Amino acid sequence: MGSSNFRAAKRRPMQNLKTARAGGYAAQASAQDSAVLSAADFDLNAYLKQRVRLIEQALDQRLPGPHGPAGRLLEAMRYSLLAGGKRLRPILALAACEAVGGEIEAAMGLACAIEMIHTYSMIHDDLPCMDNDDLRRGKPTNHKVYGEAIATLAGDALLTDAFGVLARLTPSAVPRGALVETIAELSAAAGSAGMVAGQTLDLMDEGQAISIAELEDLHGRKTGALFVAATVGGARLGGGDPSQLAALNGYARALGLAFQVIDDLLDVEGSTEQVGKRTHKDEDRGKATYPALLGIGESRRLAARLRGAAEQALAGFDHHAEPLRRLANFVVERKL
Fold it and tell me: What's the rounded Cα separation, in Å, for the pair 77 and 294?
């Protein structure tokens, strides 16, 4: 698979999306994209802020206000979904779509769905029967505000509604086969073979001695699966070819694991005020982590090697993949 295959690939905006540029998400991003994506001095902070605004606007539009008989449920859903955060997974979906020549309109439905699923997982992870956390993103966790029953139902609703958002918000110009494959991939990433399996292993392995290979498998499911679904799905909806999807799969796997290694390090080295959630909880619960198994120094070296692997996976892409390259460094260097 030669790198020239990627460099030779043309930008392929989908025909039916051209009218959307006049008033949709692509229109709001296009003026900055022309400078940001092609400039040698790419400004990652500006890019992230702009993409976060677009994603949060789309999320707000797709989730009804807290009115009607189910108003309390909708209020709880919005409380966690619109609580801020890095929005890294949906940004990966949009950036991967751009990297293969697509318009971000094509991947906005996936971006929203990914964030809804990620938010559901955090609501459920924080429950007393799981990790029993009181703080998330610097705010009281959902069940502390709305009670365990409503929090559980809010997570259920976010997970279920996510697939409707993906189906309805994806433009008709996207081939139906690509959309169906993306839905199936996202379901697998979130379900019993992916994130839920990883959470199960995480709970069952508390207090147990496990190997590095077992830890990698656990986090490949619990954390990495959504990274892969976001990145590969975004590229597929943007018109990426099989060789591009394969390369981005490798990128996302390395990035997701690097993210988890750094997350483990932040739990050891960070403070609650810095991270926005309770720290040192992994050690308290007897969880297997990279610092516990490898030590802090070797964990940092592993994160650096994974960053290198992610960057190498993008070697054949042109400047349109610059956001993905910078995100690999952002994940490893982040302090919160």
Answer: 38
